[in-house]
Amino acid sequence: MNSTARSEATPASELAFHVTFEDKHSLGDRYLKVYARLGRVEGTDSFRNLSEHDRWGDANYLFADLVIDCQLDVNGAREGQDPYGYRVEFDHVGHVNRERVEAMLAAFRRIDRGLERLDRRFGSPKGFSDYVARVADVLGVKRFCEMTTPESRFYTDSGFRWYGVDVFQYRVADRVAKFREAVTVAA
Q1: For residue 31, which of 73, 87, 111, 129 is within the disulfide window of CB 3.0 to 4.6 Å?
Q2: Is 8 a member of any domain?
Q3: What residue numbers bound the domain in which 156 lies?
Q4: Residue 64 confidence (pLDDT)
Q5: What is the pLDDT of residues 57-79, one digit of tens each?
């Protein structure tokens, strides 16, 4: 076993999704972006990003930098469309060696196998929040969080609101509805 391979005795942290909503403007276009970044719970109410450097102390390190995002543009919102373009990906990875690539592939394979099982059982996901809920189920994620204070951007305090998958799905639907309303009024 090489020195960077994890031991079977390495504990796994509790995983959670950190959810952010951004009303973005780019090249004259406006759109809503929703991100669900995978990380770990620290203590009872703090969130930390997983790091590739966690491989020595956290069995979930292979999910470092994993994010699911989607967007909804103004035209889609005005036409009543749902957010689109959602998928599991690794974001802000930095330098990547072979071991990291293999860990990322293992993560993709684990998620893909789980999603295929859920698709056979329930059919295709109905939208972004349903897709994230399924990925959460595959990974054993029970909690989602959002920052409640500007200081919590450092992920070191208790400035997070925690909730389960049902509230996550409500929050996404609510933010999409507010975005639709805002862009319809602005038209």
Answers
A1: 73
A2: no
A3: 15-185
A4: 85
A5: 566 777 888 999 999 999 999 99
72 sits in the region (left: phi over 0; alpha: psi -120 to 50; else beta) called: beta
Question: Could you tell me if residue 113 is inside a domain?
Answer: yes
DSSP string, 84-135: EEEEEEE-S--S--HHHHHHHHHHHHHHHHHHHHHHHHH-S-SSHHHHHHHH
Q: pLDDT tens, 101-158? A: 888 899 999 999 999 999 999 999 999 999 999 999 999 999 999 988 765 455 455 6
| Angstrom distance (rounded) from CA 70 to CA 24 | 12
What does the DSSP 8-state code read for residue 5?
A: S
Per the structure, the count of domains in the chain is 1
- Closest by CA position to 43, among listed 184, 143, 181, 135: 143
Q: Of the candidates 164, 121, 108, 124, which has an alpha carbon nearest to the alpha carbon of residue 141?
A: 164
The answer to whether the beta carbons of residues 24 and 70 sit under 8 Å apart is no
The per-residue pLDDT for 1 is 37
Token digits of residue 114: 């789980």
